[in-house]
Protein 1
Amino acid sequence: MQRLKPVDIAIAGGGWVGLAMAKEIATRTSLSVVVLERGPGRGLKEYAAGMDEVDYVLRHKMMQNLAEETVTHRHSVRQSAVPIRQYGSFTPGTGVGGSGEHWQGLSYRFLPDQFRLASALREKHGRNLPEDLTVQDWGITYDELEPLYWRAEQMMGIGGKAGNLRGQKVEGGNPFEGPRSYEYPNPPHPETLLLSLFTKASKELGYHPFPTPAATLSRTYQNPDGITRPGCAYCGYCSRFGCMIGAKAQPTNTLLPLLIKRRNVTLRTGCNVRRVLHRDGKASGVLYVDDKGVEVEQPARVVILASWTLNNARLLMLSRIGEPRFGEPYDPATGKGTLGRNLTHQVSNFTGIFLDKPLNAFMGAGGLGMTLADFDGDFGLDPKFGVLRGGHIRVMSGGETPISSFGRVPPGEARANWGSAWKKAALNWWDRSASITNESEHLAYRHNFIDLDPNYTDRFGDPLARLTLDWTDHERRQAGMIATVQQSIAKAMGAKTGGNSRRVGAHYSVVEYQSTHVSGGAIVGTSPETSVVNPWMQHWSMPNLWVVGASAFPQNSSGNPTLTVMATAYRAADALLNRYLKHPGPLA
Amino acid sequence: MKRREFITLPARSLGGLLLYTLAREPFRVEAQEGTVRVPLRFFTEAEARVVVAACERIFPADASGPGATEAGVVIYVDRQLAGPYGRDKFRYTKGPWVDSVPEHGYQAKATPREIYREGIARLEDFAALTPSQQDERLRAIEPTVFFQMLRRHTLEGMFCDPLHGGNAGMIGWQLIGYPGPRMSYREEIGRNPGEPWRRKPVSLSDMVGHPVKGWEEEN
């Protein structure tokens, strides 16, 4: 055991949140900051030589190595869980930048009513809500986050088209979004054939398609920190890859360059935080294992947990923070306890389409797409399906890679998925297939939660996080409603459908990739009885411990989470710097 | 020490480029005669012969273009199995090992290497059968973990970057019209909608200007 000199701030995790918090603290104060990242360093040079589907898409080279640590899953408390042995319905990243390096760059804001979902549902449905629903208000409003969304959009250089400028509807943008103070920093990407077919068809059906807000730059851009990045080259090696030219906003090309210049920040790679140390109700530092296997104690005045969603909750559990009260583990039998509750993913189905013209689908950018929000939130819900909330519908020209895109064949064209007849059909349809996708809100339920697994451990012998998670009929109905719309758009596009489609099945599956948008476990709220962190992301029972990330989402919204995660990180940083440091203590 | 094992493949598959297609019409530009002996890292020669024959039925050379043998799929599979993936260095392999529902995916202990060893053993004499007999044998094992893996690896070996040993001469990419990893489509994106953009492919090593090693070469 090695004990280091104390620092002011210790941050667990060097992804979007960890580096954003480090940047805010280190550039606005002279406090000493240490960021502990479990993975290796990352950079542009390795990304050009990393444009390889086998190593990066199929072998998950940028993701956490499951041989060292995974999570376990079961569908209900009546079962014992088994480990997710290989990827996987979600793929958390590792290394500097974390999942922010290999993300796709879709940068929606959440809808205003998604921050007060419990109130909104009560106002509309009164007591006619499912008993096991545990959705909550965030205790943060859209209006409070709006300037912080704008800060994140400028930092990343998001391209898009506003649909609601200070309450004025703008043609071509998303008419259902909350009001924005400003137009996007950059224009949308150029439109591909797939996008224009989708746009035309959905307009004919009376919908309002808009360019998907993208963190892949549509032109050369200098952000307010003075960081200049080039416009996207549409190479198509985007999601699951790091950007070789820095056009996709990533922690390593927006935040890291600022941190390298600061003498008060140290970034240590290969350092895996195992515990938050604490005594007398205050965090005193972190315990980690460095890249040589040495246990190191890093004392700190303030600790910030900025690791991936599930690990934030797990670190709190392993460190036994919040016991006996205010932050103690959740018990689904009694509904008592807060740590681990409200685990959500998203409802994500897609409809495979086959078109008569080649798409050149290997060209693209992670964020290059069209979305419609006509069925998002509370809008356009078809009463026939009896759903409480909807979601986005979209198409992406995200850049297809040859192995993954080969073999999609309309139903009935080949008996098997191998052999001569299948090969001929697959060759015929290659580059003429795509999918209309969806991400819908996932409501929180009493029976979906995280705790520690009693049987399986990581490479240090610490218990793995155990997910108890399953779909309910509500998610199947959501997917059914969205699928009906997807089918009608496909028809209007003149596409064949069938095959290559996914609906919400009887049970949650860990097998097929869905998205890395798992959330909850250390949720935000207005009361320590029902949440782990207060509306400034400060732990209710330990004021010098901050837990930031999608772990704070009380339930999941329809959009991709990163932009909202960044807005809440800015909120936490502002509260920490402007209020907490002046009067250390609980802010709520 | 283990005896060095080799697989003998037609030379045209592993050097001379034979196909070039723009409108997905394959044609031979050059045929190289003779055979090449490729050293094996994991398979025995007998095992490799079974794999070559089975992959060729999964992705056969036929009227629609070349197949798995010409692309050197067996070399790809051999290298993957010899590397960290084959030894399950990327998979959680702590017990207890229990069976579970399909939603939990593959939960058994056998590594890809072991799955192949056992699967191939059950296909003894496969290489000597007629194509239709071979198809029958494969149909019988279609639901097995081994066959699913073999099918997946066949496609990977057809369409991977040649740095991994498959897609020899970028024959798979030419077959479908994939141009390989490229720095930029700034001039092409959104232009000429509906027109296929097909070019002679480049490999990752071509693009970055130096040899690139796959992950299977490490550990």
Protein 2
Amino acid sequence: MAVIFQKPKSLSDVTQHYCPGCTHGIIHRLIAEVIDDMDIEGETVGISPVGCSVLAYNYFNFDMIQAPHGRAPAVATGVKRARPDLFTFTYQGDGDLAAIGTAEMVHAASRGENITIIFVNNTIYGMTGGQMAPTTLSGQVTQTTPFGRDIKTAGYPIRVCEMLATLEGTAFARRVSVDTPQNVREAKKAIAKAFELQKNEAGFSIVEILSTCPTNWGLNPLNSLKRIREEVIPYYPLGVYKDKTKEGESS
Amino acid sequence: MKGNEAVAEAAIRAGCKCFFGYPITPQNELPAYFAKKLQASGGVFLQAESEIAAINMVLGAASAGVRSMTSSSSPGISLKAEGISYIAGSDLPCVIVNVQRGGPGLGSIQPSQADYLQATKAMGHGDFHVIVYAPCSVQEMVDTVFKAFEIADLYRMPVMILADGLLGQMMEPVSFPDFTLSEPTKKWAADGHGGKRKKNIINSLFLQPDDLERTIRERFARYDEIKARETEAELYMTEDADIVLVAYGATARVVKSAVNLAREQGIKAGLVRPVTLWPFPEKELNEGAQNARALLCCEMSMGQMVDDVKLAINCSKPVTFYGRTGGSIPSPTEILEEIKRIGGVV
Ligand SMILES: Cc1ncc(C[n+]2csc(CCOP(=O)(O)OP(=O)(O)O)c2C)c(N)n1
Ligand code: SF4
Ligand SMILES: [Mg+2]
């Protein structure tokens, strides 16, 4: 009988700790599938962040480095410069990437560092119990914005892809979502494209993935997906924000 | 050759393949030298966006099993503290140079030894140490760089060369010995498993207290080995010394002159110069201070090493301090006066 569905080789056979309905798990799977499709497991070094996905180093079957909070793009830079033949990506949450790690993110992009950032935007600090993130939406209630994020005092949510797209060094920036099967397929395509770009030494790529945090959003898994569609995507529109490849230039 | 440049040249000869830095006086000649020379020898020079990024680039390159280095001066070293803690917690080898300047804050750009406590006691959060070498000449800086890379790989830990603005800027003749590299194969590195081994994980997180305690105890067992094997000090005219001075780095050179001046005047002075600051040369200090009536600790700080000296001799003899801070260098005559002063007291 033909096998039509199985665990990707690049995903370890261990139980993940993510909450029910959290889409971190789907994103892990997509990355593993792409690495399998490209057959690059043996040359891959992944960088896990500080955040809910810190234990990603246990979940992938390739070499992993656990980086200090926000520093993953610098760590990936070190790996890639030391060993350009290796394939390396960072996996980072919105707090990790767009608050404490802003400098590392911007300068890795600006240098055109030949690495890929998988940016998991769930508009909240998941791991520490649901505090405001730089991506938290206006009015969103979190532990540290108990009356809803007030733009007057807390400033505006950051749109990372749009910001990085302005940098010459950014070769590819695309925002996707994993809220529907159709969008999951698109997300996989985006990851595959970013990884291919790195293989072709095209420079810096980032795939931003809108993700759920049912636990800290105080919503059930289905309503969390609904929130992505109704509140998150309107502020963070899906799409390609930069594509320096021929495909991108011709479109 | 200038101290800073000599360090860079020695590092290239010692097989350093990656340098990541950020400009700060008085160490700028060091990255500048790498920028000019490292690429030609097949290495990578990168000016990072901050000291934080630089140390994390070192973390990445060291994780991939490649000899890497960063350098900075006091304010920049403070920024590296987080990364150094992670590097130590992940058992990664690397070399860090601190060409110290006056502090706290922006302080001054003049020589200083006010980062002693930071380097030897608390180079970041958590239970860990870095090996700290304190060379006192350009030649010794060169020799130390080579040793630092070897030791870092041997014990899989960060090694710091604690220099100062004087050593970094000073010009001295220097020769580069033929280094025979003994870089071990790094089976633990995150450099792609190639389908040939299980995956490697570079990590400092251990959520179970017992697991974290075990890794720390293992590391401290290695520290005991390092204390036994790698501790170094120079003893100068200590056999019959009444007064033993304790000084390291550039200050030790000034103190040596003061000891010579004292001897000319019939005062039996000697010098113990810690070469490793961590581990601190306790045994060597006791040996050097055997016949001394008093000890005088000299530093370009407010006396950060004094407690280590007192502890090493178990407070069995009076230990006094003379130092300058803020970027001033004590002169041999100043120190001679101090020797005479305590010579009269004890
Ligand atoms: C230097 C430092 N500051 C703060 C923390 C605490 N901390 C851990 S995870 C986290 C936020 C993570 O949020 P995000 O990056 O959005 O990831 P998520 O958990 O939402 O996936 C913070 C602030 C830390 N570990 N280190
Ligand atoms: S806290 Fe949120 S982001 Fe973290 S695992 Fe749970 S649902 Fe996912
Ligand atoms: Mg988050």
Protein 3
Amino acid sequence: MKIIVCLKQVPKNDSILRINDAGSWIQDRDLTYEINESDAYALEAALQLKEKHGGEVIALSLGPARVQSVIKEALARGADRGLHLEDTAFDQLDAFGAAATIAAAAEGDGFDLLLTGLQSDDHGYAQTGVIAAELLGLPHATIVMDLQTEDGGIKVKRELEAGFFQWVTMPVPAVFTIQSGINTLRYATLKGIMAAKKKEIKKLDAAALGLDAATLAPKQQIKRVYFPQKSKQTQMIEGTAAAAAATLVEKLKNEARVF
Amino acid sequence: MLNLQPNPIYYSSEHEQFRKTVREFVAREITPFINEWDEAETFPRALYRQSAEIGIIGIGYPEEYGGTPADGFYSIIVADELSRAGSGGLIASLLSHSIAAPPILAAGSAELKARVLPAILSGEKIAALAITEPSGGSDVASLKTTAIRDGQCYIVNGEKTFITSGLRADYFTVAVRTNPADKGAGGVSLLLVERDTPGFTRTPLKKMGWWCSDTAHLHFDNCRVSIANLIGEENQGFQTIMLNFNSERLGLAAQAYGLAKVCFEDALAWARERKTFGAPLVERQVIRHKLVDMAMKLEATRATLEDLTSRVENNIGAPNLLVAQTSMLKNFATQTMQFCADQALQILGGMGYIRESRVERIYREVKVLMIGGGAEEIMKDLAAKQMKL
Ligand SMILES: Cc1cc2nc3c(=O)[nH]c(=O)nc-3n(C[C@H](O)[C@H](O)[C@H](O)COP(=O)(O)OP(=O)(O)OC[C@H]3O[C@@H](n4cnc5c(N)ncnc54)[C@H](O)[C@@H]3O)c2cc1C
């Protein structure tokens, strides 16, 4: 089975975030980065499938030179080779542009499974995998917690709401977005890290992927990023216990909007 | 200062990846349990295998024995990251093979290496080094434990003491006198003694610190050890022991640096958080100065440690001068640790005296690093001799 895993590099979750001068995104100076959490679980799921059924795991990352460290980490954990999608034309992509770029690269390489994380920890759109599947015209499932092969196809367990699950079976090739916490992440061992030095990382730019400016032009823009306003108010509610409770419920509902 | 980016002269992206692995490993598998282990005076044996799996145990050993060839900076990373759990005792026991196995690799026969190294490097078997005797550890050349040849065996008699992993180890690299006529360095050999050898017994020792590390007194009573277990040539063991001390001392320096850094970090965090008389401690000049003094010594230690590691790795400098540097660094790093543990405990106040604080434990671990692997005075004598003062 040939599996491409999409790995996004995101700011470490304990980073101290500042907003950039233009107010359009976070300042990327001084940040340290890591693999997006659910993507790491997607990689682990891919490695486990490979161990069981054989095949190849390809680590794909889209972004500037620094994202190579994410690819190298995946190679150290056991991925066979890397695809690095790098071009200044990719700097301002929205979810559609990222999905189009990934879809072009994945189609070019060929695959049985294309895995992404459920959503990225920075933008949190949860769109990339789904749009890529649509662009590729492939079946897909989201919030996947388990993957099993079945009669040449694949059977996956999806997380629904309120503790419910759904099993769906579909043919391959297919695209899945993977939930965090579904497996135990392996360490990048010293042997793996040393072996990764010899593994191939292929670079692909917009021209190589046949992507034009129109496809990459953002369809969605972030106008302004700001910290939530913190406000604190204290109100004393007077009256009998019953009346005060009724007022409290009313205020929680209509003013604080907690339910 | 402690967030200074690692110097790319010494650390590649692979080093940094490995640092990340070890950091995650320590945070997940060690830190949550370390207080419990220390109080119980042990830690799970499975930790050896887990550590071996991620590559900690096999650093620098050939692949044919299950190791991973890698430079000395990987070992610094291991010492640095394991230190974050705040227990030097854990490091001493978990890495006791790092003083026991190098003589086997350097001088052992092909058969011996193939027989014991893979099991040690995979974390299945534990290895210990036994040099020190009740009659003294500094003067190695005068050791008294004898191994007298009898056919295809040596008959070993004597005692060793303060031996790390002494209770749990499966293999012991033991310094013995094979030529009783020679009372000095010329009569010393190294012999691998296996755990189940009849006549070989061990008793535990209670200690000031390093609680989770087992330390034992070893008794050899007419133990028959096959000549196949001789490590290197007969009566040629002393030189191997001395060479082994150099890498041990560099490792101890790295550990002292790592633990000193933990003291600084905990002191800084506390000084920022703790308020007295309406202001955080860190705003008091006297506290800031303490922190700067700690940082200054740490930085000087780090710079020397990295410089020397690079020199040893690349053979830059006359061997005798590298030995002198190593001896001085061992003293300097342990003095840095002593200073930082003391200052940090003072800044933490009563909290620093309470068990379960990393600083409290590290404070109790200072002296073993200033004595073990060569006492401070011995290090100075050695440095003076090597520098031909
Ligand atoms: C917890 C722990 C673990 C240890 N683990 C091991 C182990 O795994 N394997 C092993 O072989 N050993 C081990 N040791 C032993 C350690 O290496 C010795 O304690 C050390 O070498 C000093 O030897 P000694 O204690 O016999 O002190 P001695 O040699 O008796 O010296 C006592 C003190 O006298 C001073 N001194 C000695 N000689 C001189 C001199 N010429 N001039 C001036 N001052 C001098 C020093 O201050 C020294 O500390 C361990 C020790 C401890 C405490």
